[in-house]
Amino acid sequence: MTASRLHFNRVVIIGVGLIGGSLGMVMKRHRLADSIIGVGRRIENLRTAVELGAIDAYVGDARDAVTDADLIVLATPVDTYERHLKEWGPRLASGAIVTDVGSVKGALVEQAEQLLPARVRFVGAHPIAGREKTGVAAGSVDLFQGARCIITPTSRTDANAAGKVRALWEAAGSSVFSMDPYLHDRVLGAVSHLPHVAAFALINALVDLRASSLPELDLLSYAGGGLRDTTRIAASSPEMWRDIFLWNRDNVVTLIDLYQRHLDRLKHLIAERNGDGLEHLLEQARQAREQLNPVPTGSSRPG
After folding, report:
1. Contact 29/21 with Cβ under 8 angstroms?
2. Alpha helices, DSSP H only, in 139-295?
3. Which of 51, 101, 161, 183 is most deeply packed, by most CB within 10 A?
């Protein structure tokens, strides 16, 4: 299906934050839905979403909104999926599509397929775009422009539903790829989840250093661009990343072990004053870093 032919009657976005709100802005700009209803915990945020044109109206309880919806976008922390699907899944109409924007797929896709009624179609999706700031006020209709979006169909995925979800993200300006849900978690564990682990750990190490060794100095005030660039993603939502780390824990733990081995190698070369070995290792890293593609506009945070 092409984006020009895509249209929904009633869309419900559960979790109108940065991603959910930005998607709502896209759908309203391109007139992809007759009405878009937001559901969330904070009324102030939902009011802002209406003012910014992300949604048409809002309700506090998803069960009051989803009954006649033909698309439901689940944009809450991944650990909440089970509760949400149990609460309102049985109320969904035949043929309704449920999709998500979570950074973990694997077991969560299986869970969603098991919890939803057979008459409902689930399509996992992960837009790799975002910012450290959260909430709909940080959203933008251009957030997904030029970014990647991965959809994660399984043998149970309805092809027509997958086509509509693909067309939705293409309308948002994303390049859409299909990937097995568990392969997705291995790949994103390496290129997104591990970097967040490293950033959080580095900031906490510096906080510990300041408290234990340099209490008289505001250590972080001396930071230059290097520290800011390296730890920028440590400003991301702790709630969201707690859930991502735990739901992808096997991959994340394995990757932390790999990262620690490379840290130990650097530590050994420095301790042994092995300049040649150290330079060789750093040159390897430099060359690999130069092969990274430029970050698309609107995709400042892998998610």
Report:
1. no
2. 159-171, 181-188, 194-212, 225-231, 238-247, 249-271, 275-290
3. 101
Mean pLDDT of 148-165: 97
For residue range 196-249, what is the model confidence (pLDDT) as tens digits?
999 999 999 998 887 777 777 777 777 888 898 899 999 988 999 999 999 999
CB-CB neighbours of 112 under 10 Å: 24
Q: How far is the first Cα of the chain from the last one, in angstroms, to the nearest whole number?
A: 27
What is the CA 123 to chain-centroid distance, rounded? 15
- Rounded Cα–Cα distance for residues 218 and 216 (Å): 7
DSSP structure class, residue 31 = T
| Cβ atoms < 10 Å from Cβ of 287 | 9
- Give the separation between CA 21 and CA 135, rounded to whole angstroms: 8
At which residue do the structure tokens 């870093």 appear? 289
300 — pLDDT class (breaks 50, 70, 90): very low
Please write the tens of the pLDDT for every residue from 58-108. 998 999 899 999 999 999 999 999 999 999 999 999 999 999 999 999 999
**How does strand 148-151 pair with strand 175-178?**
parallel
Three-state DSSP class for 104?
A: coil
